Amino acid sequence: MYGWYVGLVLLVAAExxxxxxxxxxxxxWSFAQGGVEYxxxxxPFMVAxxxxxxxxxLVEAMHRPFIPWLGWTMFAVVLLAxxxxxxxxxxxxxQWNTRVIVVPGLKxxxxxxYRFLRHPNYVAVVAEGIALPLVHTAWVTALVFTVLNIPLxxxxxxxEEAALKSALVT
Length: 170
Fold this sequence. Notes:
Layout: H1 2-32, E1 36-38, H2 43-61, H3 68-92, E2 100-102, H4 120-134, H5 139-167
Antiparallel strand pairs: 1-2
Helix pairs in contact: 1-2, 2-5, 3-4, 4-5
């Protein structure tokens, strides 16, 4: 089962590359519209943490068994997290970015998953950070990522909230 898991982690890595392509395109659009970037300091740590998550999944899973009831359940959670993430990306359109870039004067998005949650993309991030490692019982990776991600998300959400408050029309 490890070979299948490697394929899954590589697919998630490819999805991250696709996100970066979309993010770069959206950043160019945002800056062309007068967008302002906020909270740049945490971004390198976020990139490193998410990259290390993928690497740690592969390393730890080499030493862990695949437990079908856990693995398949967590695989379903990974798929749901990906679906939620791309729903957020689609709904935000040009406003979505891996960085915090806000175009002054735009309205706050309140449709799609944003009808229910202020930051639904982070639900996907948390779910995936727990579920992807647990697909192949990499519980240490799931735990360490989650513990490190908590303060990062706190900084990120504060940064986004300040950016939205200063730049968007509600």
